[in-house]
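Retro notes, structure queue

What went well: the backlog is down to a handful. What didn't: a couple of records were mislabeled last round, so from now on we paste the full input next to the output in the thread. Example, using Radical SAM protein from Salinimicrobium marinum:
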Amino acid sequence: MEIIHIFVAVERNDYIKGRGAQQQVANRFSLHSHEMRDDFLNYCAVEGEEANDSKTSFIETFPKTIVNKVTSPDVGMEFSLNPYQGCEHGCVYCYARNSHEYWGYGAGLDFEQKILVKRNAVELLEQKLRSKGWKAAPIVLSGNTDCYQPVEKKLKITRSLLQLFLKYKHPVGIITKNALIQRDLDILQELAKDNLVRVNLSITSLEEKTRRLLEPRTASIKKRLETVEKLHERGVPVNVMMAPIIPGINSHEVLPLVKEVAERGACGVGYTMVRLNGAIGEIFSQWIHKAMPHKAEKVLHQIAECHNGALNDSRFGARMKGDGKIADQVAQQFAIARKKYLSGRERPSLNCALHEQYKDGQLKLF
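Corresponding output:
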């Protein structure tokens, strides 16, 4: 079979600011492979052209369904909804990068630069919530890519989805690392009155320098801590996820981070150990040798130590928490931190009892 080489404009040596991935990565499902050649870079230099097109493009899609059944026992959700595929936040470690390959794109720069927008998400959700066969169960925004990534500020798809959850009195969970969620505090507060919402806010580090490298287009740490505080003040339960823990990068921050978010009003904390599954191993390894060359090999070896000598472990029950001494030390730190700073706090279960009465969008009197 003939392999067609497509020359992709990504500079080989210079660090690409504002992006997590530092390269395009071949799609494992594609017949084509990508190769970067020096003669192309030399041509760009001579002609004064940019070798890297760093613009983000938004591609409208119209799926047939929007609510996904989640079968993994590790992620703590039964159903998810993702209004966007791909994520401009650019978190270099993101497990969702691999899913971009199913859309025909790469897990590297494509994941951050080619964002698929589900334009009919609101209509599809309303059909689902009105369906006679649907029984209320928490639906999580978003189990894969962030529902509050930058383009949401303009498109407001997530806000419209939350308005539907409120209209139909249906429970919803939210996973995000963007302070843009503060825009929707009015809806979240109304949902919280009936115990219909819970927020999981991701805060990976308290160090802004670390955040800028790991998560280049996310909200600042200051804004995220402020978000925890504001959600708590409005009565919206907020759990903080320190995800992922990366040995040698943020593993030393467990106690101070838990203390900080507890003081801001978080009702709980959770964590996952980093695992570099699929194409992410290559993406992360190339990134860390550029971003943190002095500690790259040490970090990679410590990650492997948490997964029986590999950068990834796909076993259910073990893949999220890891094995070995480093993983055990992290688990012990979290146990101490929860006992010291979050004792007595609970995350309430979401209310699934109201939706049936509001199946047609208003309270049924009889």
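Agreed that this is the format going forward. Reviewer comment attached to the example: The first strand starts at residue 5 and ends at 6.
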